[in-house]
Design goal:
The chain has 118 residues and is mainly alpha-helical. It is built from five helices and two strands, in the order H-H-H-H-H-E-E. It has a two-stranded antiparallel sheet. A hairpin with a 2-residue loop joins strand 1 and strand 2.
């Protein structure tokens, strides 16, 4: 019976060896803090490291993760909330005045709309 005491990869012939120094970690951290939009490939090229090494430093050591701005919730001020409500109230008034025919002329998109007046 073969007893396995570890589930981690043991070093083996042909396996890439990463040398990560505290200087490299500090340099990558400075690059990311200077430009939050930098890619792992750009970091790798600048540091003259492989993509895998740059990825390892960014994700595994520094634990930075790319977050798309469009998915980050934002806090709306009272003024912005009011500005978002104004078009809705305008649409409601037009619906009340014109009825169901008005609804057929609304063209909607992501957070925008248009009214086909023709």
């Amino acid at each position: 019976m073969n007893c396995i005491s570890s589930v981690t990869d043991s070093p083996r012939l042909g396996q890439a060896h990463r040398v990560v120094t505290s200087d490299a970690i500090a340099a990558v951290e400075a690059i990311v803090k200077e430009n939050r939009h930098v890619t792992v490939n750009e970091i790798a090229a600048y540091m003259d490291k492989s993509h895998g090494s740059a990825y390892h430093i960014v994700h595994d050591i520094l634990q930075f993760y790319k977050v798309s701005v469009r998915w980050v919730p934002r806090q709306l001020t009272a003024e912005l909330k009011e500005r978002r409500a104004d078009p809705c109230q305008e649409l409601l008034k037009r619906f009340e005045a014109e009825g169901d025919g008005f609804l057929g002329r609304i063209v909607a998109g992501d957070d925008s709309f248009g009214i086909n007046e023709g």
